[in-house]
Amino acid sequence: MTDCVIYSALDVMAALMQPMHEEADLRQEQENKEKILNSPKFLESLLDVWTSHVKKGTGALVTMAMLDILTFALCAPYSETTLGSHFDSLLKAVAQRGHVLFVLFQVRSTFRPSLLTLQHKFPSPLQRDPCFTGYNLCSWY
Prior knowledge:
Structural class: mainly alpha
Distance between the termini: 29 Å
Strand content: under 5%
Number of strands: 0
Largest sheet: none
Helix content: 55-70%
Number of domains: 1
Radius of gyration: 15 Å
Shape: globular
């Protein structure tokens, strides 16, 4: 599957998880999140694609779309409509890939020196921005 198709699918899922229009129906938003986050195998495959792109330094749109999905599922105030069981399982899956977040946001870590080398080969586009001072997953918006 091409990155364009993956990005488009992730963008549609993000739009279903958090409608950006006025008078959004919270019940519908919760049902959409429940259906999207219901399959742990599906979430694992999405996170694997995201992890792969971050490690290679490719797929900027895919990476950003996946960050949107994670934001809408895990970060307040968007996470208020995420079921507790889905929140917990997704948070555990993301925590297992915590080193990828460190690589993505250029946080130095002494625990995985091989990934530090990867950081220097593929600098984050966020770090190239002269206005960039730091980044927190849940403060993207």
